[in-house]
Amino acid sequence: MTKKMMDGVGKFARHYPANVAIVTTRTENEQDAMAAAWHSCISFKPPLLGVSVSPKRHTYNMITESKKFAMNYVPSEKSIISAQTGGVSGRDVDKFEMFGLELKGETGLDLPVLKDAYAAYECKLHSVIELGDHHWFVGEVLFSHYDEEAFSEGQMFLTDKVSPTMYLGFDHYLLPPKCESTHLERSKLPE
Ligand SMILES: Cc1cc2nc3c(=O)[nH]c(=O)nc-3n(C[C@H](O)[C@H](O)[C@H](O)COP(=O)(O)O)c2cc1C
After folding, report:
1. pTM for this prediction
2. Does ligand 1 lie within 6 Å of residue 27's CB atom?
């Protein structure tokens, strides 16, 4: 293979595939959901995660107002939810109604948690860092939801039970057959 180098980053897509989260939030009057591929865990103690949201998004204004959001992780066979919530704005449509997105009844922070999610985190807004054309919304996870069957002992993702929504950029998604996982011991220095 020929390894190339270029200036800058182009479409910022060569590190894909990336796990997509559906970011949901609710104010007193409305709720919204948007797909986000730019997100990460940040800290265990306290449990912090971050998601990069453009100020152009309705979600941006709503989280700024509500000071809370949920990160919903849906299985690959529901990748359509990413394309749906990532295509139109909550300014113009009620995405929950339009796409028939069902919600879990019981939540900790009165946030919309998707029934289709195999995992979801409810966060209170910790801070916002204004970086470039997207801003980094940091959330502190106060409640977690998960599908018992998707995880071994409630923790480790079972790849024979569920596969995540993985974005490839350019409106393409990875639709894996059920992948297998393998345990690879981390390298250690001899004692
Ligand atoms: C797969 C995918 C990933 C996306 N990732 C992000 C992201 O990380 N941050 C962001 O601000 N927008 C992202 N978007 C765009 C928003 O989801 C999209 O603009 C959405 O319509 C915003 O909805 P809202 O105006 O209701 O908030 C993504 C879209 C798709 C389809």
Report:
1. 0.95
2. no
